[in-house]
Amino acid sequence: MRIQADTERCVGAGMCALTAPDLFDQSDEDGTVVLLPDGPRGPDADAAAREAVERCPSGALTLTDRPS
Ligand code: SF4
């Protein structure tokens, strides 16, 4: 599973970082999403990523089935 984040769409709401703090952080400068490249992988991480995508209010996050 591969996570993509569109920082142009991100409004810095922070739901992703709250939902899956091992996968997402926020920029210190403007609060936009930062993907954590060394975050966990596997079924639990995939479920957390899906939940974060559902909670993102701006639709900035997408998942693909391509391996990361
Ligand atoms: S939840 Fe969405 S809008 Fe909020 S910081 Fe994460 S990617 Fe950006």
TrEMBL record:
Query: What are the record keywords, sorted?
Result: 3Fe-4S, Electron transport, Iron, Iron-sulfur, Metal-binding, Transport
Record InterPro entries: 3Fe4S_ferredoxin, 4Fe4S_Fe-S-bd, Fe-S_cluster_ET
Q: Does the keyword Protein transport apply?
A: no
Cofactor section: [3Fe-4S] cluster
Residue ranges occupied by any 4Fe-4S ferredoxin-type domain in the UniProt entry: 1-29
Cross-referenced Gene3D superfamilies, in alphabetical order? Answer: 3.30.70.20
What does this protein do, in the record's words?
Answer: Ferredoxins are iron-sulfur proteins that transfer electrons in a wide variety of metabolic reactions.
- The name of this protein is Ferredoxin
Q: Which organism is it from?
A: Streptomyces halstedii
